[in-house]
């Protein structure tokens, strides 16, 4: 486990550092040809995330890929068991999407650059005004065709029961009538969080993509129940 962990972290950080010039090229490309830039970023990031999972010894089984909408932007809402949920989502669940992430990640310059290329949103959880602005920005992104992934628990459960879902992120999709796709992640914490001394260990992970929930035409009362509706879909799947 120790050797695997050393190799994984060395690859993670060296790759980010060595690809800084690539990030600069993408910034240039985004101004000249945004569509080409998006395709380049998606290909680049998906391959990187797949290698991260392979180096960790992750064996990922994905069920229900046919449930991902193909003709519109959408929001994926998944439970959050561990750090490996992010590379799993980037590489194994449909097209590459941006994340709604905590603002603290902006301090990691190498990570921040690539997250911006992915159209991620950074949330300041201590500022209600910033949270409201995130909903506005996220709704605009969905309307422009950029799908998003959220982890509405707000933190990793590390294999414990699914925590309550925060409501704010669901308003992003509801405001513009875009579908929400519940996704169950089962076992990702076994790759890291369940292991002593934070060592990475091989593990099997099951990912289930559920049928999308349409938000177009929803009443305010229906939108209010979305967080718990999605949470129960995920909990029921985990309890099978």
Describe the structure.
It is a single chain. With 240 residues, the chain is an alpha/beta fold. The protein has one domain: Glycerol-3-phosphate (1)-acyltransferase (3-Layer(aba) Sandwich), CATH 3.40.1130. It is 47% helix and 15% strand. It has nine helices and seven strands; from the N terminus they run H-H-H-E-E-H-E-H-E-H-E-H-E-E-H-H. It has helices spanning 2-18, 20-32, 34-56, 85-92, 109-117, 128-143, 168-176, 220-224, 226-238, and strands at residues 58-63, 75-78, 98-102, 121-123, 148-150, 180-186, 203-209. It has a seven-stranded mixed sheet with strand order 1-7-6-2-5-3-4, with helices on both faces. Helix 2 packs antiparallel against helix 3 (34-56) and helix 6 packs parallel to helix 7 (168-176). The longest helix has 23 residues, at 34-56. The chain starts with a helix and ends with a helix.
Descriptive labels:
240 residues, alpha/beta, Glycerol-3-phosphate (1)-acyltransferase, 47% helix, globular
Give the helices and strands, then pairings.
Blueprint: H1 2-18, H2 20-32, H3 34-56, E1 58-63, E2 75-78, H4 85-92, E3 98-102, H5 109-117, E4 121-123, H6 128-143, E5 148-150, H7 168-176, E6 180-186, E7 203-209, H8 220-224, H9 226-238
Parallel strand pairs: 1-7, 2-5, 2-6, 3-4, 3-5
Antiparallel strand pairs: 6-7
């Amino acid at each position: 486990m120790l050797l695997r962990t050393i190799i994984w972290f060395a690859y993670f950080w060296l790759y980010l550092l060595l690809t800084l010039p690539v990030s600069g090229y993408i910034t240039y490309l985004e101004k000249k040809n945004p569509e080409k830039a998006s395709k380049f970023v998606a290909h680049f990031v998906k391959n990187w995330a797949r290698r991260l999972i392979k180096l960790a010894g992750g064996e990922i089984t994905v069920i229900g890929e046919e449930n991902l909408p193909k003709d519109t932007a959408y929001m994926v809402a998944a439970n959050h068991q561990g750090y490996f949920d992010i590379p799993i989502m980037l590489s194994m669940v449909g097209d590459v999407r941006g994340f709604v992430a905590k603002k603290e990640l902006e301090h990691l310059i190498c990570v921040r650059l690539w997250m911006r290329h992915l159209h991620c949103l950074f949330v300041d959880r201590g500022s209600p005004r910033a949270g409201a602005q995130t909903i506005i920005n996220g709704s605009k992104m969905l309307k422009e065709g950029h799908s998003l992934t959220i982890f509405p628990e707000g933190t990793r459960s590390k294999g414990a029961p699914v925590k309550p879902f925060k409501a704010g992120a669901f308003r992003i999709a509801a405001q513009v009538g875009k579908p929400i796709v519940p996704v169950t992640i089962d076992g990702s914490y076994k790759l890291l969080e369940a292991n002593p001394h934070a060592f990475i260990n091989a593990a099997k992970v099951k990912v289930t993509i559920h049928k999308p929930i349409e938000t177009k035409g929803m009443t305010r009362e229906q939108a209010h129940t979305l967080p718990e509706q999605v949470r129960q879909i995920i909990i029921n799947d985990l309890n099978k």
